[in-house]
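Hi again,

Forgot to attach this to my earlier email, sorry! This is the prediction with inosinic acid bound. I've pasted everything inline since the attachment limit keeps bouncing my files.
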Amino acid sequence: MKTLLSEEELERGVRKLADSINDVYQDSPLTIIAIMTGSIVLLADLIRLLTMPLRVGVVQTSSYQGAQRGELKINADLMPDIKDREVLLVDDIFDTGHTLDQVIELMRQMRPASLRSAVLLRKTGRQLIDLVPDFVVFDIPDEFVVGYGLDYRDEYRNLPFLAALQEDDIRDVGSVVR
Ligand code: IMP
Ligand code: MG
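Structure tokens for the complex follow:
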């Protein structure tokens, strides 16, 4: 495993993100919707640096396996009502872009007053969707990363830093269901 972003670098990045969000929304009430489970650590660190009146909700996404592999399932049961509210979607990593794109489509149907998106990480050269998140903290190389909420087969989310998996950690990264 190779460290890509240290605890200190992540902390500085999240602080920068919080400053930008505080600047954009000022004192307007905001609803943050985090895409679980990968953004759980980012969510906890970020919301404590935000200064506007804040509501927090989550959606969970997961990919089907087998015949429908790649199809995204979105569970929005734990989401507060967002109609006519300023909404910011938060995700850990922007890879192909499918997850954020489909969650945005679902949120739009709920008629928020505004809808923006923030991601901690964006993988270089991987995007398949014509969508640019409003806030991007770090651009990283195209490697499979874990830690700070991100998992490999449900492990490593608790690492306080971000690491890239190496050959000896894993041989079939390409088959990971994301
Ligand atoms: P996208 O739909 O391809 O943009 O993928 C976004 C989702 O895939 C993220 O929310 C993560 O859950 C997962 N993902 C993508 N790349 C990685 C990675 O390198 N490590 C861990 N999870 C990843
Ligand atoms: Mg995710």
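The first helix runs from residue 7 to 25. The pocket of magnesium ion (ligand 2) is lined by residues 35, 38, 92 (CB under 6 Å).

That should be everything now.

G.
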